[in-house]
Amino acid sequence: MQRLRVRRTFEADRLRAILVVGPNWVGDAVLAIPTLANLRRSFPAARISLLSCPWVSGLCRASPLVDALVEAPSRNQLAWAVTVLRRRGFELALLLPNSFRTALITTLAGIPHRIGYVSDGRGALLTVGVCRTGGSSLHQVDSYLGLLRALRWDAWERPTRLTLPKESDTEADMLLAASGVGPDALFIGITPGAAYGAAKRWPVERFAEAADCLGDRLGATILLFGSPMEAPLTRAIRDRMRGTAVDLGGRTTLAAFTRLLGRCRLLVTNDSGAMHLAAALGVSCVALFGPTDPHRTGPLGPNHRVLRDPPACSPCHYRDCPIDHRCMRALSVQDVVVAAEALLEKADATNDRDVRKAPAVFLDRDGTINEEVGPIQRPELMKPVHGAATALKRLGEAGFLRIVVSNQSRVARGDASEELVEATHHRLLQILAQDGGSADAFYYCPHHPEEGRFPYKRSCLCRKPRTGLIHQAAYELRIDLAGSYVVGDQATDMMLAERLGLPSVLVLTGFGRQALAQLQETGGPRPSHVASDLAAAAEWILKRNGTR
C-alpha cells in the first residue's frame, strides 16, 4: 500500500494532456513501460507525452503507449525546459524519477498537478505526494506502478513489450554482414558492462572462458555488446578468447543494439540496462548479481536465471568493491554455462539434439540415505535407512540421476582423510547394491565451515547451502537442473534448494525433525514436501512427475 499527501485535488476523468517524466537510464526506462501501458489503459482518450533523455528516448519512439516524445534538456537549459513544457499545456505530470530537479521543472512550467514520491526534499513541490510504504523490497517496476496504484488507477498488469522502429533492421544487418556473419546463426549475446559501477561486473576473463565454452558446445556466434565507454571491456574479452566473437562494443546505436539483442537466443549479462532490455524483447537472460538485489532489479519474466551467491556483505550497492569482490568472484564459469544450457534447452533453442540431459535428485548422505550415527571412522559401520536402496533404484529406473552431495568438514578438521571419505562412499554403494540400489555420483565439500567468512581470505563455494557442487555436477554430467529435486534432512538442504530454485523434500530421518522445527521457528525456507523417509520422498517425486 502507498500513502498519499494531497494538497490539490483534480478530476481524473477530465485529464486530456499528461506528461510522464521518464527515467534517465535504459534499464529503468524499460521498467517504466508497464506504467506507461497501464496509464494508457486508464486514460485512453488523453494525450500522453514522455519527457525522456536523448539516449533512451529511442526505446519509445515507435511505441503506441505514448503520443509524443519530449527530449529532456541538459542541466544548464532549465529555462528552456520550463518554456517548452509550459507551451504544451500539460494538466498533470507523473514524475517517475525521485529527483528534486524534475519536481522543480514541472512546477516552474505551471503544470497544475504533479504526482511523485516524496523524496529528495521535494515534497512541497508535489500536489500529490506518495509516501513509500513498501521499503526497498519492491521491484523497481512495482515502485513505478505504485504511483498509479496509490491513486486507484488501473495498474495491475506488468507488460514489458517493446515496439521497435523498422529502420533499425538495416543497421543491424549491415553490422552483421560487415563482420562476416549470416543472419540465421545462433546468437548468444554478452554484455560485460554495468553503468552504475565496476562492482556489478563479472571478471572479463570469466566472460571470455564462458563465451568460448558456449561457442564450442553450442556452435553459437558470440556477440559482444557495450557502450563506447564499455568498448575496452568487450575488447578485453575478445582478446582473451580462443574462439571467434563479433565485438560490437561502441559500434551500435541504441536502435541497432536493440534489434541485434532481439535476435539473440540468450544473453549473459551483469545487472544492467541491457538485461532489462533483453527481457522486454523476450530474450532469456543469465543474470549475474553481486552487490545489488535481484528482488528489486532482477529481469522480469519466467525464462531467466539469476545467479547469485551472496556473502554477508551483499547487497551493499557500492559502485566499487572495497575488499575482494567476493560476491561476483563466487560465480564460476561452470555456473554460467550450466544455467545458459538449461535455458536454451528449455526454450528448445539449441540444435544439440544428439546429447540428452537427464534430471537429477540431489541427496544428502548421512541421515537421508544412511542412518545418522555420528562421524563414521570405519566404513563397515555404514547402515542404509530402511527402504533407501529401493527408493534409489526406483528413481534411477524413472530416469533420474542420483547425486549424493554432502558436507565433510571433518577432513578440514583433521578427523578424517579424503581416502576415508571415498572408502565410505564405496562401502555405501556395496551395501545399496545388495537391494538393487545405487548412486550415480558422490560430491562432497572437505572445507571448514568458517572458510570463506571474514576474516578468512579463501572462499569456499561448495559447502551447502552454497551451490558450487550442484553446478559442478550439472556441468560434468549434463544434468537438466530445471527438472531436478533436492532431498535431505537438514535445513541447509532446504536452503540449497531455495538458492537453486528447485523443489525440495525434507525427510524426517536423521536430523529431519529438528530441522523442520528450526525452519518453522526461524521462518526459513519451507520444503516443498515433508516425507517420513527417502522411500516416501521418492514416491512423492515420482508421483509429481507422473512416473509412479
Average pLDDT score: 86
- Which overall shape is indicated by the principal axes computed on the Cα atoms? elongated
How many DSSP E strands?
19
Q: Provide the gyration radius in Å.
A: 27 Å
Helix-strand category = alpha/beta
- Compute the number of structural domains: 3
CATH fold-level assignment of the largest domain: Rossmann fold
Describe, in plain words, how this protein is organized in 3D:
The chain is an alpha/beta fold. It folds into 3 domains: 3-150, 3-Layer(aba) Sandwich (Rossmann fold); 168-346, 3-Layer(aba) Sandwich (Rossmann fold), CATH 3.40.50; 360-544, Rossmann fold. 36% of the residues lie in helices and 15% in strands. The protein is built from 21 helices and 19 strands. The chain has helices at residues 26-31, 33-42, 54-57, 78-88, 100-108, 140-150, 168-178, 204-218, 231-240, 254-263, 273-280, 294-297, 326-329, 333-346, 388-397, 410-413, 418-433, 468-477, 491-500, 512-522, 534-544, and strands at residues 3-6, 17-21, 47-52, 68-71, 92-95, 113-117, 128-131, 187-191, 221-224, 245-247, 266-270, 284-288, 305-307, 360-363, 401-407, 441-445, 485-488, 504-507, 529-531. The strands form 3 sheets. The chain has a 7-stranded mixed sheet. It has a 6-stranded parallel sheet with strand order 10-9-8-11-12-13, with helices on both faces. Strands 16-15-14-17-18-19 form a 6-stranded parallel sheet, with helices on both faces. It is elongated, with a radius of gyration of 27 Å. The relative contact order is 0.08. Residues 349-355 and 452-459 have low confidence and may be disordered.
